[in-house]
Amino acid sequence: MEAGTTDWDRYYPDPTGSPVAAHPLAEALAARLATQPDPRVLLLGIGSGRNVGPFVRAGVRVHAVEQDVARAEAAKRAFVANDSVCIECACYGGPFPERTRVAGALSTHALLHGTPAAIAAAVQAVRERLETGGSFFVTLGSVRDPRFGRGTRIAEGAFAPSDGSEAGVTHSFFDEAGVRSLFSAFELEGAYEDCAAATVGTWAHEPDQARDIVHWYVKARLPEDA
Hints:
By secondary structure, this protein is α/β, with parallel strands linked by helices. The chain is built from 7 helices and 10 strands. The chain is globular, with a radius of gyration of 17 Å. The N terminus is likely disordered.
């Protein structure tokens, strides 16, 4: 391992062998949680592990839930020496094995996949783990994404591409009304659509595939009276 790098910086590097940059929502949530006493964060999906670093550096304890068995086991091996990181294999729709309340939750890839019903179940499972006033930062598929409506229709708003690196994988796409409905139990601090070419996981998409992807970037908060 190179000097100055850590296990979470080098885990699952992109095809060039370079460290994978954390998602900007991870950086933003880590900065928010760093101001709280003994904070914990729930990561929905470990992905490339790129989002662990900002939280560890901010002194935030990480609990990651990953439903892919092989990826969960690889992540456990990668982070075994870090006692502030816990990774469990479980369905995103819950219930999660670890029941401790968390100050924040993050999903930058997991909730792009699955049907709207499955994504709604995952949002509810996260809600049940959040402390009152806790933050949930999420990326979702957008109907402005050119992949919307292509491939095999799985459910209303959900399609599985017929080719490419994610052939057969169900993706859900939301308009603004759909996003607001999904987070109706939360206070929306912000929700906007943007090109995801610079933030999409390079472990899941080649650059030429990523350049046209459009995501929702959502910042939600569990109300004090929830």
